[in-house]
Amino acid sequence: DVVVNLQFHYIEKLWLSFWNSKASSGDGPASLPASDGEPEGAVLPKDKLVSLCKCEPILKWMRDCDHILYQALVEILIPDVLRPVPSTLTQAIRNFAKSLEGWLTNAMRDFPQQVIQTKVGVVSAFAQTLRRYTSLNHLAQAARAVLQNTSQINQMLSDLNRVDFANVDFANVQEQASWVCQCEESVVQRLEQDFKLTLQQQSSLDQWATWLDSVVTQVLKEHAGSPSFPKAA
C-alpha cells in the first residue's frame, strides 16, 4: 500500500520494524501505516525469524516471493515505459531506487550474511530495473518530441537518403553492422529500407516500438526454444 500511495519513506521504517521485531508488541518504529488485517501477536520475534531464515527452503521461498512482489511493484509504478510520467514522480522513483539497498542492509544488519545477500540481491535487481525504466522513459519522451516534429523527421529522412548516395561509405556501414550483429548483409539492407519507410510514414513512438519489437522477433525466430536463445538475445 505504501508504494501504491507513493509513500516511499515508509519502506525503511517497515523493514526496520519487521526485521528487528521483539516479543513485545510495543517495540519498533512508530508512525507506521496501520494494517487492519494483521492480528494481534502476529509479529514473529527476531530470534525465531533468524532461525527460519537459516533454512534453505525458506530462503528460496523468500527469494521467489520477492521476485514476484518487486515485479508487481514495477508494473504498478511504471506500467508503460513509453507513457509520459511527471518528472517529479520519475525523480521520486529514482531516489527510492537509490535508497533501497541501504535501507534493507541496515534493517538486516544482525542477520546471517547469506540471508542478507539473498534479500539484498533481489532488491538490488529491483532497484536496477526502476533506474533502467525511468531512464528509458526519459529517452522515450525525448524521442516522442522529435517524432512529433514533422520538419525534423523530413530533415532526418533527407540526410539519410543523402548518405545513401555515397554508395561506398554506406556499403562500409552495412558491412560493419552485419559483422557486429552477426547477420547477413541482406538483413541489414532490409532493415535500412524498413527504417526509412517507417520514418517516411511519420510513425508515432508506439509504432516505432512495435516495429523494433517485430525486428527482434524476426531475428531471434531461428533461435526460439533452443539453448542458444539467451546468447542470441
Instruction: State which percent range the strand residues make up.
Output: under 5%
Q: Provide a count of the helices.
A: 10
Helix content estimate: over 70%
In whole angstroms, how far apart are the ends? Answer: 36 Å
Biggest β-sheet description: none
SSE order, one letter for each helix or strand: HHHHHHHHHH
Number of domains: 2
Pfam families: BCD_RFX
Protein name: Regulatory factor X, 2
InterPro entries: RFX-like (IPR039779), RFX1-4/6/8-like_BCD (IPR057321)
GO molecular function: DNA-binding transcription factor activity, RNA polymerase II-specific; RNA polymerase II cis-regulatory region sequence-specific DNA binding
List the helices and strands and how they pair.
Elements: H1 9-19, H2 46-53, H3 56-77, H4 87-107, H5 113-147, H6 150-165, H7 167-181, H8 185-200, H9 205-220, H10 229-232
Protein name: Regulatory factor X, 2
GO molecular function, one term: RNA polymerase II cis-regulatory region sequence-specific DNA binding
Domain RFX1-4/6/8-like BCD: 1-232
Any overview of this molecule?
The radius of gyration is 25 Å and the shape is elongated. With 233 residues, the chain is mainly alpha-helical. 70% of the residues lie in helices and 0% in strands. Residues 23-31 have low confidence and may be disordered. The protein has two domains: 9-145, no CATH class; 150-232, no CATH class. It has helices spanning 9-19, 46-53, 56-77, 87-107, 113-147, 150-165, 167-181, 185-200, 205-220, 229-232. It comes from Mustela putorius furo.
